[in-house]
Design goal:
Distance between the termini: 49 Å
Radius of gyration: 15 Å
Shape: globular
Number of domains: 1
CATH superfamily: Quinohemoprotein amine dehydrogenase alpha subunit, domain 2
Low-confidence stretches: 8-28
Number of strands: 10
CATH topology: Lipocalin
Oligomer: single chain
Mean pLDDT: 82
Strand order of the largest sheet: 3-4-5-6-7-8-9-10
Strand content: over 45%
CATH architecture: Beta Barrel
Largest sheet: 8 strands, antiparallel, barrel
């Protein structure tokens, strides 16, 4: 059970971490004029020391919100959080997840903090993440880190 829980937490954390890699020029929340994150992305992430590839879908809104859907359907909730601009093409995000056991009971949460840099065209990005896992009383039960990359989902017109 502990191994499965940690694997699920790792998956969710890596996915969340990789998501904040989208930007275009406009004004961003909490940063004055400059670039802002928005759009939907396909994320690939790995946890340091693990070769497991993790996939997710991530959406960033222009007003600083983040929603992430991990590839783990039942044990980890959709992630919710926010982003801020750190500098030129650099952003930080924090995403929180709920964790459930095999019976669906809430057993804890995790908080993923990430720093990312996007490319010049704002179509790809990469960065690192750190995850802290909490039990229901807010006690730290695990921590881990990793790296992620993402590609923006581009609209496609029918022929």
């Amino acid at each position: 059970m502990q191994f499965k829980f940690r694997s699920v937490v790792i998956l969710a954390a890596a996915i969340a971490a990789s998501g904040v890699v989208v930007a275009h020029l406009e004004s961003a929340p909490n940063s004055g004029n400059g670039q802002q994150l928005d759009g939907s992305w396909v994320v690939d992430a790995t946890v340091t020391g693990s070769g497991q590839l993790i996939k997710a879908l991530l959406t960033c809104t222009p007003n600083g919100e983040v929603i992430e859907t991990p590839s783990v359907a039942t044990a980890v909730s959709t992630g919710h959080g926010g982003w801020i601009r750190l500098g030129n093409s650099e952003f930080a995000l924090t995403v929180v997840y709920l964790h459930r056991d095999d019976n669906g009971a809430l057993i804890g949460t995790s908080k993923v903090k990430s720093d990312f840099k996007v490319n010049q065209n704002f179509t790809e990005g990469s960065g690192r993440f750190e995850t802290t896992v909490f039990d229901l009383n807010g006690n730290v039960v695990d921590t881990f880190a990793g790296f992620a990359q993402a590609k923006r989902i581009q609209p496609e017109a029918l022929p």
